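pipeline/complex-builder :: batch 7 item 3
reading input block
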Amino acid sequence: MYRVNEDYLKLPGSYLFSTIGKKSRAFKEAHPEADVISLGIGDVTQPLVPAIIKALHEAVDDMSRAETFHGYSPDLGYSWLRETIAKNDYADRGCSISPDEIFISDGAKCDSGNIQELFAADSRIAVCDPVYPVYVDSNVMAGRTGSYDPETGCWSDVIYMPCTEENGFVADLPKERPDLIYLCFPNNPTGVAIKKDQLQKWVDYALENGCVIIYDAAYEAYISEEDVPHSIYECAGAKECAIEIRSFSKNAGFTGVRLGYTVVPKALKCGGASLRDMWARRHGTKYNGAPYMIQRAGEACYTEEGRASIRGLVDYYMENAATIYDGLKGMGYTVYGGVNSPYIWLKTTGGMTSWEFFDYLLKNAGVVGTPGSGFGPNGEGFFRLTAFGTHENTQAALKRIAAL
Amino acid sequence: MYRVNEDYLKLPGSYLFSTIGKKSRAFKEAHPEADVISLGIGDVTQPLVPAIIKALHEAVDDMSRAETFHGYSPDLGYSWLRETIAKNDYADRGCSISPDEIFISDGAKCDSGNIQELFAADSRIAVCDPVYPVYVDSNVMAGRTGSYDPETGCWSDVIYMPCTEENGFVADLPKERPDLIYLCFPNNPTGVAIKKDQLQKWVDYALENGCVIIYDAAYEAYISEEDVPHSIYECAGAKECAIEIRSFSKNAGFTGVRLGYTVVPKALKCGGASLRDMWARRHGTKYNGAPYMIQRAGEACYTEEGRASIRGLVDYYMENAATIYDGLKGMGYTVYGGVNSPYIWLKTTGGMTSWEFFDYLLKNAGVVGTPGSGFGPNGEGFFRLTAFGTHENTQAALKRIAAL
């Protein structure tokens, strides 16, 4: 009899956002009259901007004519998109990243989940706690995390790096040496950013200790402060130790469009093995490229018109962030994030656990958020709200919370 | 120092179609005057049909308005698409597959490569030889295949099931018991189909021996004969032992659009573990859904107009298949496939190896095909041509081959 991958079965419960979706749907079914506002999953609400819509229509027309039809895309993505990214996201910021170090994909989530495949089965991983669940879950599925302790919510073989009020939600360097370090800044879920000198310390640590940093910069567009790096490659030596993952979901609103990219520098080598070549091999073997139409939409993000409109989108959501941050603060909540990020991280009140606060807010205010403990043990007692709603919904949600 | 996944480094050379692409580009650069015709990689050439173009434009417009904008799609895909598939591809053929056993993805290649994750690390895999390289390569990357013998082109721990002229390119049941059996019918690369009573024997074998069949039915639309099953679920008991992978690439021309789906029946259980639930967990954790616009394009494939146009596309390519098959036969080549499949499988001449024949055809006729040995040791001495060119190119290629 065949046997299954037992590591999959170790995962407790279901994927965090699937659980939230199920709970919300159950509440709506039980209370069809309730007008539930979701500030939970980090999904955008504003439509695609006109420059992107135009590019999509044109690309659809391309697909309707034999002369301009596009079949399989190149393994790494179209060169016109990779060159545009290399220039705009890197060269213009003083980082030298070549187009053949950029891999276009259907989004940061797949890349975040798949990147661990490049590393040895017994690699030790270190994650910030709390953090986006995909890093740990994908390593659980790959058998790297040991056993789960339901009491502590921790895996025996994962190095957790607490992000707490005390350290300003920027983890201290780990005490044990990991092989892989997952960092996400601006952070999901705390909304806190890392300063350039702080990030340089992580790069230096990785170089000294032979670690690879997986740097998730999905929220880069929300950075508003000067000394916050937009890319890890702004730090000296990062090309020798870091992989960077980027998304079009949160800046251009591509959550339902699906586009992202990952940078694996050629300088990233382990003995004779080039991680860039290994990732290229994975793209060639297990992936078939992002759709032509959607790569064209990605390209449109970098035109003058596209950039201006996307800036407008980000500003729109950041107004919500201010609404939530200032509103909650005014009510006496302890709040973090929201300055370089679309996430607000608040402390639950009345000694409630994160899930108790979730149920309390859903039941009494009809507002869905995300329980902090879903992001790791140190998220317990916190709660995440997102700025991705409409102005109207965000203001309405705040009013309801104020009335509690 | 961190270490990489050494299994990746075992892969000889690069992914087959990447190598062919590189060789073709090198030839074109050296001979800019040459008008190279590609009948190599199975990429389509005809534009998307009007019903799909219309659906795409409408979906783009949906994304331009807040009221109809779509963010993250449901983990398994939109229910309207899964319900349409359940009805048209299964219920209408007498197979009872429920929409929540259908998982929408960005294509059959990803699913073919990722499905092995559900199984134990030491699972034994059996593949037809020759076969689409993704099945073996993805298992190499997962460490299941042992060591590679460059002499024989074989992996020590893979069970190869020869598909030869003697057995009509339908493999005999394996002598050793595998855990996973990859079957692809109509077959890539041989173009040969399997009859229903033959496939039933495989299902019976899997049930008796505790195996799972991964059934790749990407070429189902090309079936023209009556007694050839379109789905493995036409066989009794298949829901207890088989996963089926489907593609929109080859029927609707979605190679650059990216859409596919995989069926994991609820009846497929190993002890207490439901493979359907495990695949759902993978979708939830490492994937973020196919784009809304492209799921709408998939839906349009099933409308009356969409079906008629797609039938026209398939007929167009099958005319090419007949052109190639009859043309080569007339020249004295030994040829197979082409009846229930867009692939023609021919024997090389003059004692040439597959790669020698590739170079010979490229150099002397400016025609790119795929060397049979790229699909496995038993592909040596064979060569694959695809029917996915235009009529004009296909006829021109045949004329050039005739003139050799």
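note: The mean pLDDT of chain B is 96.
queue -> next item
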